[in-house]
Design brief:
The structure is a single chain. The protein has 10 helices and 13 strands. By secondary structure, the chain is of the alpha/beta class. A 6-stranded mixed β-sheet has the order 6-7-8-3-9-10, sandwiched between helices. A hairpin with a 2-residue loop joins strand 4 and strand 5. The chain is globular and about 75 Å long.
């Protein structure tokens, strides 16, 4: 559904994108992660047509997005990082505008709006101006504007930034439902546990490139976890040991004669992946600030 190859975007001497490759298949949720300046938002802006790349190719479904942008954008639903709602209009009115742009009319439009409002737990506030809604409710309205009309490709850029637990739960449930129905989803976030909840495949960006791609298990398989041991003798300090083989390391510890009071094994996770890649990938001279 989304296929981007060798994208380059320069701003003066800096390259926000420096050979950026990424594909997202129908029914797949891809978590695009990386620190600030990695190129995530620039990539989303290029996919949506707000920014034109200096080089590279991008296809959305059957369309060349750089040559046939209008047709390509017709397949998109976008929730940008910054809120983009009409504050004096109600949540329903915001959705009517986006549904109309998606080609929905009359009863079909109204039924789709009701469905999305219910999906994101917004029915009770649907007819209130968005400017007086809570921050979490506005986040859900913004996500609803991206989802109305069942687009084939969803681009969600930090959709839960500053969100409360209710908002986060509603958004994640809606995203999973859309992917299960066949939509391709690109999801950027700094909140890594969300990607575990979404069972997303991962694309880790750094210095304008995707430097790692795969499932969490694939990307963390060879990373060390941690063995946390406390001892029956309170005079013996607790130990935190990096380990790729917890059983062997614990056996070695037991032969030392010290008696553990508790043992906890932590598997490597996304934070460990971040740290390992930051340590091994050199900073690009062309990376965006």
């Amino acid at each position: 559904m989304l296929d981007a190859q060798e994208l380059v975007k320069r701003y003066g001497r800096h390259r926000a994108l420096d050979g950026f490759d990424l594909t997202v298949a129908p029914g797949e949720i891809v978590g695009l992660i990386g620190h600030n300046g990695a190129g995530k938002t620039t990539f989303v802006e290029i996919v949506t047509g707000l920014v034109r790349p200096d080089a590279g190719r991008i296809r959305i479904g059957p369309h060349d997005a750089l040559r046939d942008g209008r047709a390509a954008r017709g397949l998109l639903g976008v929730a940008p990082q910054e809120l983009a709602l009409y504050g004096s209009a109600t949540a329903r009115e915001n959705l009517k505008l986006l549904a109309g742009l998606a080609g929905l009319r009359g009863r079909r439009r109204d039924a789709e709006i009701d469905r999305v409002l219910d999906e994101l737990r917004l029915t009770a506030v649907a007819d209130r101006p968005t400017g007086i809604l809570s921050g979490g409710q506005r986040r859900r309205v913004q996500a609803a504007t991206a989802m109305v009309g069942c687009p084939s490709l969803l681009l969600l850029d930090e959709p839960t930034a500053g969100a409360d637990p209710e908002t986060r739960a509603a958004l994640l449930a809606a995203v999973k439902a859309r992917a299960a129905a066949g939509a391709a989803v690109l999801y950027t976030t700094h909140y890594l546990p969300e990607l575990v909840d979404l069972d997303a495949t991962l694309a880790l960006a750094r210095a304008g490139r995707v430097i790692a791609r795969g499932t969490q298990d694939e990307l963390t398989r060879d990373l060390p976890g941690e063995l946390h041991v406390t001892f029956a003798d309170p005079a013996v300090p607790e130990m935190r040991l990096p380990t790729t083989d917890p059983g062997a390391d614990l056996a070695a510890l037991l032969t030392s004669g010290r008696t553990p009071a508790s043992v906890d094994v932590r598997r490597p996770g996304l934070d460990d992946l971040y740290r390992s890649l930051e340590a091994t990938v050199p900073e690009s001279d062309h990376a965006a600030a």
